[in-house]
C-alpha cells in the first residue's frame, strides 16, 4: 500500500459513526454502507462521520454545520429577530451577509403582520428575507441563527404546529437549494450575530 492509500485508509478507519438528519429520520449508523443506503438519492438529507457516538449525538441535537465549515462559493448570513411591546405589535427582522470576514450586504425591516410569537416572527422573517436575497443573487449560503426553530422547521426536523411556523415552511418550500443552516449561540458578543441583532432592533425603531 502506498503512503497516499495508507493515509486515506487511516482517515476512513477513524470515522466509526455516521449520523444522518435533514429530510430523513435522524439516526446514527456504525458503518458507511449503512449510512449511504439511507441517504443515497434523498434530496435534503444531511450526514456526517464522527469518531465517537457522543459527537454524533451532539450533531443530531443541534450541532452540524460550523461557521468554519464554509465553502469558497458560500457566504455566511447571520439572521435575527426582535420584539418589544413598546414598539408595537410587529416584530423586527435583520440579516447581514458576510464573505471572507467582511460585510457585503445588510437589510432590516418589520413583519407585514402583527407578531404571533413575539421575536420568533422576526427570526423567521429574517431567514425568509435572507433566502430570497440569496436566490436573487444566485448565492449559496450558510444561514447562521440563534433560534433553533429556524433550521429545524426548515429541514422538517420539527413539526410545524404554530401558525407562524406553518407560514414559514410554506414560504421557503422549494427555496433551499444551496442553503445550509448553522445554530449559533445567542448573546455571546459575536460580532456578526450582534450586528444582525442590531439590524433587527432597527427594524422596529429600537
Concise synopsis of the structure shown:
36% of the residues lie in helices and 25% in strands.
Task: Give your account of this protein's structure.
The termini are far apart. The protein is globular. The protein is of the alpha/beta class. Helices cover 36% and strands 25% of the residues. Helix 4 packs parallel to helix 6. The N terminus is likely disordered. A five-stranded mixed β-sheet has the order 6-5-4-7-8, sandwiched between helices. It contains seven helices and eight strands.
Which secondary structure elements does this structure contain, and how are they paired or packed?
Layout (H helix, E strand, L loop, with lengths): L2 H12 L2 E6 L4 E3 L2 H8 L5 E6 L2 H8 L13 E9 L9 E8 L2 E9 L8 H18 L3 E6 L3 H6 L8 H10 L6 E5 L7 H13 L3
Helix pairs in contact: 4-6
Let me know the average pLDDT: 85
Strand percentage, roughly?
A: 25-35%
Helix fraction by DSSP (H/I, runs of at least 4):
25-40%
* Tally of helical segments: 7
Radius of gyration: 19 Å
Strand order of the largest sheet: 6-5-4-7-8
Q: Which stretches of 5+ consecutive residues score pLDDT under 50? A: 1-13
Outline type: globular
Which key terms come to mind for this protein?
206 residues, alpha/beta, 8 strands, 25% strand, globular, disordered N terminus
